[in-house]
Structures
1.
Amino acid sequence: MPLPPRRLTEPSFKMAKKDYPTLENTSEEEFRQRKIKSFALRVGRKSPAQETALEQHWPSYGLDPKQPLDPVAIFGRNADTVLEIGFGNGASLAEMAANSPELNFIGIEVHTPGVAQLLIQIEERGLKNVRIYNHDAIEVLDDCIADNSLSKMQLFFPDPWHKKRHNKRRIVKTELADTLHRKLQANGLWHIATDWEDYANHCVEVLEPYPGFENTAGKELYILRPDSRPLTKFEKRGHRLGHGVWDLMYKKI
């Protein structure tokens, strides 16, 4: 078994307020009163290009977390819908959307500069099959996504919260499995990728005994990275440094 890899971190960004409720404009007291979050708000700043992208392109590609999602109305077609939680800077999501124009892609990301970066890529690539939430993923799933509506759910390189006292913040838990089992269509897929072996083992511990999901590779087995998941620049760097990556694929049953 490979040695546990080091965490590959992405740049930090500062968040900006939006015209609808997000964690960005939640007071510190309100934040403390909310449920335990699986993410930490990063501090940083947006570039001028990112500011422009948010101003010019958010109205076209941004989604309101207070409204139920209607993919047919949003995309103008009836197609399989893939949802990704925490798309980072959006590079891999944009590449997947470009490679699979027949699919609808919904991305959720709380960090505004990453949202802005994806907007830039959407415009540069001329993508018509991507829409974005800048909001808490759990709230989006609960409030916006209809049951039995997703063909695939993607969770790539979530924060591993590797310190034991922080393990309770990990997003992969039975509660999320309950939610995704409702939201996925019959035989829908849940794809997880992590560069922390301990977190991969944690996912196995949570999902192997869960009665609503089946490991497509076999009990407690990982899959090879499928071509549908592009390599990010951080993952490529990790490979050069000898870091491992673990992919898991579960099917709704």
2.
Amino acid sequence: MMKAPIPALALVVFAAAGCLHTAPVETGTSSFTVIEARPVPPPASGKGWAAVPTNHAQFRDAQIKGEPILPVYPARALAAKAGSAQVGVHLVIDSQGRVSDVRPSMVAVTIAPPEFAEDFRQAVETAVRQWRFVPARAQYIETVQGSGGFSYDRVARTEDVEAEVDLAFTFTANGKVQAK
């Protein structure tokens, strides 16, 4: 009878037993796409008029500060292997740069299994309520009558204003982000 050397025998035993690692737990991922940015021009007050946001010289969109917190794939939907979902939301960003309202988008479609639609929507709302923005800014223009019969427009003042944006969040249960 031939004896296998001890190291070779140990290698065979470990190989036969297999690796005892646990499989990674899928947590799902999410991503977002900006669908449409719409400013909400404030009413004209005092001297001058609110510039219609026709170019960046008259209006600056709200800009997100830092890295946005993405929604977490809902645990209940993940356990049920609900698959992919898309949630469209309409955000109102106040003049201090905070999200003041989150509601369903009329532009970005929501596609989610009906039994988990509220879970996905709540995950999105929880995430975006934590976002902070550099507020949108509008310039107020006034027309000045110069001597010699000519007139020109000038910026009378600037003001941080409310803005709106539609976003589409895409959830995948397999850990991959779907590109738009």
3.
Amino acid sequence: MLKKLDERQWLSFGHLTRMLNHLRSKNVARTKVGRRKLRLFACACCRAMTWTLSHVDITDPGSGWTVKDEWRSIVKVAERFADGGISEKEMAAQHAVQLQKALDRTHVLSALSLVSKAMLATASTEPVNAAKLGARYSVYAASNAKSMTYKAASRKAADLLREIFGNPFRPVALDQALASWKTSVIPALAQTIYQERRFEDLPILADALEEAGCRNVALLAHCRTPGDHYLGCWVVDLLLGKG
């Protein structure tokens, strides 16, 4: 039997498996929204913990190409698929092309095994597997490369799950009057933040929401939380009708 999580644990917990099990118990993977968010969570883990690891910088001296380019492209394809930009068949085809390029151009995959497993997991046909394996291998890769301790990497993954799913114990319903405020200024700003990854503009979005009458503490606080945000951010998704 799965051990239940309460709200306090969700907000402060660093045990990723139990957090994912909680989402599974709520049948998150059975919804289109849930499947998208699980995949974007895996992508966020890769971006947050494996994107800049130095042992991925294996460079072809002739072209300047790095194996990191091909692994990263797999994550970007997975993000496009999650948002409906390409079909599962197209994702599989593009994933195969990028994987073959990486395999053709390097013979030192042992040094890249954890990073490659994390990034490849994002393209899994099963979003639950994408989430579990993308997070697990990202944590292992970061701790193996000593960019952060295992405990810190595990905590980071849990933070990213909260970044994507928010607080499932207190789902936020947005007042539609806010979303259409001043000829759709707010959703337009949210769309720009999402499409251009301008998450540094989230505090500006919080100011606009507050001016429009938003008093939801959790929503405003998330916008003003320092640090990186990622595709699937629960506040931006809520404003864009993706949450």
